[in-house]
Amino acid sequence: MAPGLVRFALRRTLRDVKYVEAVRPRRARGLVRDVYRQVERDFGMLAPPVALHSPAPDVLAAAWLMLRESLVAAGTASRADKEVVAAAVSAANSCPYCVEVHGMALGSLGEPAAAAAIEAGDAGAIPDRDTRALAAWARGEGRLPADVPAGTAAEFTAVAVAFHYLNRLVSVFLGPSPLPESVPPSARAKAKAVLGALLKPGAAPPAGEALGLLPATSADGPGWAPPGSALADAFARATAAIEQVGERSVPPRVRDLVRREVKAWDGKPPGLSRAWAEPVLAELPGSERAAGRLALFTAKAAYQVGPADAAAVRSEGTDDRGLVELVSWAALTAAVAAGDRLPHRPRREDFPGRRG
Q: What SUPFAM superfamilies does this protein's entry cite (predicted)?
């Protein structure tokens, strides 16, 4: 399968986004068009996990800022190490789509054994000790080596937070594989090989070039990011944008409930049963339980979200933009908390010459 056909097939997978209609590239205007152009320029293809945000342009820009400035842009960490973090976080979040994508990317960067171990759910079998430790840290099961500089640790933390966010959106809005269902089983191995080659990054683009997509904010950015850096600015802008849409699309009582539940959570999946959520949701008025259920499941168990959850919210008059905004707000709330739980994450005082 030729690379051009794979790119075409990936664009067609935008039709497979569930519950909302993603903006087609030829119809993109304004901010959506600007983000699409940057994604294709810097990421190499219009990735469905980014494009699914397009019904909500500000959220689309926020998602791209977090992905670009953490994973794609130039920094001190290698792209291969950042792909290890992305794949390991995705495995911990039971997001097979993202595990497959970033496993292929990792394999294209010369780490097929690490990719295979993470995809198999056995990161402990990664041959290289440092790579194994990095994957364990990303899953919240170990500490980074003491000799990892604070700036590099910040980049790893940024990737982890970005993928705790993206995994949840992908679990809600996409299927289990980046390859379209139209690709026959006999061609999937070859298609994966071609897609893996396409995912191999070239030279990393300069940091900060996407910042202009969203307005500046007076917030300092997350405490783990170097103060004044493009990384801090990107996450500050993205967080401000998603918090703003959350105020519009998520009822205040739902926001309070999700924040409280996430704060008290240890990050471990609640399991396969959905019964855990009902006693919590009982405190909401009936008119807000559909939104509360979707937000709470997105935050703590996005793999449990099903068509009925989205349909219940849509039945109350929520449009595509509102649905994306609700899910995005809940996902970012959980992702920020997941970043705070990571062991040995950098703090502002770890950066010489910087004041928090």
A: AhpD-like (SSF69118)
